[in-house]
Every structure is written in C-alpha cells, then in structure tokens.
C-alpha cells in the first residue's frame, strides 16, 4: 500500500494562531495525503479544533503557511447550532454546499443510518441523529479531503464503532484524505496512518505504534494510554474472512 | 399609462413586496432586523442629500446606506462595543443629522411625514421605473448568490471551509438590503420599511417547514398586505405605510392561530 506518489491534499507549515496575544497553537506542521487518515489528539484546549480551522482557512490571520490542493472539501465541525428561525429539513441541509441528486442523498443518509430522517426538521433531531446527518452531508459530496472534528460525539456506543468503520471505509473507497480529531484513543491507534499529539504545539507525531511509546505521549495521557495499542493488537489476533468465519493470523 | 395615482401605487407596492419577501427571510434568518432598521433610518439623510444636490432620491439613499454599512463594519473591527449599541448609535445619529439638515432646506417644500410613513400620492412614473428595474436587479442578484448566501446563513464555518466564500456574499447581501431600502422609501416610509421586511417573513415562518416554502409564503403575505393596505388607505384616507404594516400584523396574528392548530395536530 505504500505509495510515495500519493497526492498531497493539505499542507500546514509552521502555523501559529494568536487570540488576544495568546498563542492557541504554535508552529504546527502537518500534511494529509490521498487515502490517508491523520489524527489529532490532545487534551482539552490543546488546539485541535483550532488546527482544523486553520487548515480549512476559517481562521485566516495566522503565521505560517497553509495550502490546500483540492476544493472538494467536506467538514464536520465540532459544534453546529442551527437557528430555530430557519426552517430547514435534513434534505435541505444535505445540499447546503453542493447540488446533489436525490439518490446521492439517499445513499449517504443510508450509510450513516438516518435515511428515515430525510424530511424531518433539523431542529427536531437528537444530538446523535444530527451528528449522523453531519457526517452524511460531508461524505455525500464525495470530497477529496474530509475534516472531521470529533465526528461521533453524542452517538450511541454501537453507532460509534459503526461510524468509525464507515469513515475508514470511505477513506479507502473515495481515496480521500482525512484529518480526524478524536478523543477515542482506541480508534485513533487502530484506524490511523499518522498521529499528531497536540498540546498547543506538536508534542510528538508519527505512526501510532511509535507515538504510544513516546515519553511525551505518556506524560500527556498517562501510562495507561500507552497500553492501548497492545490491548488493541491483542484483541485482534485474528481476522475475519468474507463469510464471517475467523482466520487466525499468520 | 399609469396615469391614475392609485394604479401607480399598486404597481409600486406589488414590485416592492416581490423583493421584500425573499430578502426579508434572509434578514430574519440572519437576525439582521435591527441592521435593516439602521439602514432605513439613515435614509432620511440620503433623501435630504438628494434634495440638496438635486439628484435621484433612490440613488442618494442607496449611497448613504452603503456608506453606513461600511462604517458599521469598521466600527465593529475598531471598537469593543456590542453590535446593538453600534447599530443604535448609527441609526439615531444618522436620523438626527438628517432631521437637522432638513431644517435648513427651507427653500424646498418638503413633507417629512410622507418620508417617514410613505405616501402613495408621491409615486410617479419615474419611481415605478426605479422600483421595477432596481427590484428586478436585486432579485436576479439574490437568485444568483442564493446557494452560498444560504450556506453562510446556516453556518459560517461550514460554508467557509467548503469554499463558499461567506464574507463576499454577506457583503453583497448588505448592498442588496441597502438597495431595497432605497427603492421602497416612498411607498412604505423609512420608519416602517423594516416592518415590511420582517413581518411577512415572520408570518411565513409560522406556516412553513423549509426555506423555499418560507420565501414563497413571505412574498404572498407581502402582496396581500400591500393590496389590503393600499385599498384601506384609499378608502379611509390613512397613510399608505402604516396601513400596509397594519395589514402584515393582522396576517401575522392569523398565522399564529394556524400555527397553533398545526402544532396541536402534531401532538
């Protein structure tokens, strides 16, 4: 799978962002390529969402440089509040930034399991339902770059796993690059190609299995967090064949 | 053609309500009613400028409103005052300056009341041309920018991230609002144009569940109000602006009853 010629979709170089003279992030660099999942982890207030917004060009007054090499971008923000003065249904929301055919909308809503909500008002959805709609909207336009800021917040446990599997599947199917922000270290370590550990700056970064061994990572998340990978790898000492039977790993 | 003053008023009113319908929806969605009110207040200054320099009233009002909108953006950046305070400051100071300047225009016979509340007698053929050409232009631009404007109305960050350039379209929308106020001053009056923008849209909100539907209802309610208001004005000799706005209010009250019934049915 290693392919050096994969297209770079997003490149952030030494980006810093100040708000009232206080640095929210300092000298963050990252790169997202086609078919790659890059994950940002870090404690609250460590600048994960800020980094995503800088990468997307929402925050413009920055130091450093941000380049996006695609215009096909899908974004799932951490917080979306839709005003009650605006009567808007799920179906209207789906075509917010892109004209989609009816069956494209149906396919995307089906993937995230909310096809039945299509004609419902956005204001009447539960937190988890709304989150599923947000993800469906972002993937329906078949983006080249997906930026997901805690995409499964408020989703039930079973749905959480399914949605992360969906995200992984989408990155392969659409061959798009994904910048993911997540608190779920299990998911991060199992599904990610590259991890950046943020705490105002990039603490450490690399492939998941090297990051968990990093002293700085242990400092930030505690010793238990570094067992996650071993736990994960232990849990999956087998794989599933197409008919669902268990194949022991070689 | 259009010799009868009342026919002219009807045609003007219909033209305006076709524009206030969709634009008013955006004003309500974006919570800009006070902003629209501020622009309208500044229109008095625009009118006096027009009389003073003997230029077209609609054009002068448009220029003053646009300047005020730019001024507001600058003040927002350079001061720490909240938005409503800045809007209040601009609205009332521009109204006051306008009224002071009116006092000096002694050489011109000038009906301030007509300006504040609208006057159907004042509509001439030239005004009709301005309303229909200007209004048509506003609607065409609004149609062209509908998608990015709507996206940025729903969520600024989403639309910025996905390349819809919200800042640009928000600015265009501000200009459209200024233009609408400029063309509708004569019919509704500057104190009441905000009502014409907001009340039909608010009424439409009560009976719609999606954006397009709300726009259509907003236009329909605006049209009904203009017709009812103007005929009443003719019949009982009331000022045209207040009559039209009173009609929008009656429709709003009716929509509340309907709204209640619909929500009862849902239970």
How does the SSE layout of this entry go?
The complex is a heterodimer of chains A (250) and B (267).
Chain A: E1 8-19, E2 22-33, E3 37-41, H1 48-56, E4 63-68, E5 73-76, H2 90-94, H3 102-111, H4 127-140, E6 145-149, H5 157-173, E7 177-181, H6 185-191, E8 194-198, E9 202-206, H7 208-211, H8 215-221, H9 223-226, H10 228-235, E10 238-240, E11 246-248
Parallel strand pairs in A: 3-7, 3-8, 5-6, 6-7
Antiparallel strand pairs in A: 1-2, 1-4, 8-9, 10-11
Helix pairs in contact in A: 3-4, 6-10
Chain B: H1 5-29, H2 33-53, H3 57-78, H4 83-104, H5 112-117, H6 125-144, H7 146-154, H8 156-161, H9 166-188, H10 193-207, H11 211-236, H12 240-266
**Strand and helix order of chain B:** HHHHHHHHHHHH
Query: Which consecutive residue ranges of chain B, at least 5 long each, have pLDDT under 50?
Result: none
Question: What is the CATH topology of one domain in chain B?
Answer: ABC transporter involved in vitamin B12 uptake, BtuC
Q: What kind of sheet is the major sheet of chain A? A: 6 strands, mixed
> Strand share of the residues of chain B?
under 5%
Shape of chain A: globular
DSSP helical segment count of chain B: 12
Biggest protein-protein contact in the assembly: A-B, 25 and 24 residues
Order of helices and strands of chain A: EEEHEEHHHEHEHEEHHHHEE
- Overall pLDDT metric of chain A: 85
DSSP, total strands of chain A: 11
Low-pLDDT regions of chain A: 230-237
What is the CA-atom radius of gyration of chain B, in angstroms?
19 Å
Strand order of the largest sheet of chain A: 5-6-7-3-8-9
The CATH superfamily name of one domain in chain B is ABC transporter involved in vitamin B12 uptake, BtuC
Provide a descriptive summary of the structure in words.
The complex is a heterodimer of chains A (250) and B (267). Chain A has 250 residues and is of the alpha/beta class. Helix content of chain A is 34%, strand content 26%. In chain A, strands 5-6-7-3-8-9 form a 6-stranded mixed β-sheet, sandwiched between helices. In chain A, strands 2-1-4 form a 3-stranded antiparallel β-sheet, with helices on one face. A two-stranded antiparallel sheet of chain A has the order 10-11. In chain A, strand 1 and strand 2 form a beta hairpin. Chain A is globular and about 50 Å long. By secondary structure, chain B is an all-alpha fold. Chain B has a domain of 185 residues: Orthogonal Bundle (ABC transporter involved in vitamin B12 uptake, BtuC), CATH 1.10.3470.10. Chain B starts with a helix and ends with a helix. Chains A and B meet through strand 5 of A and helix 7, helix 8 and helix 11 of B.
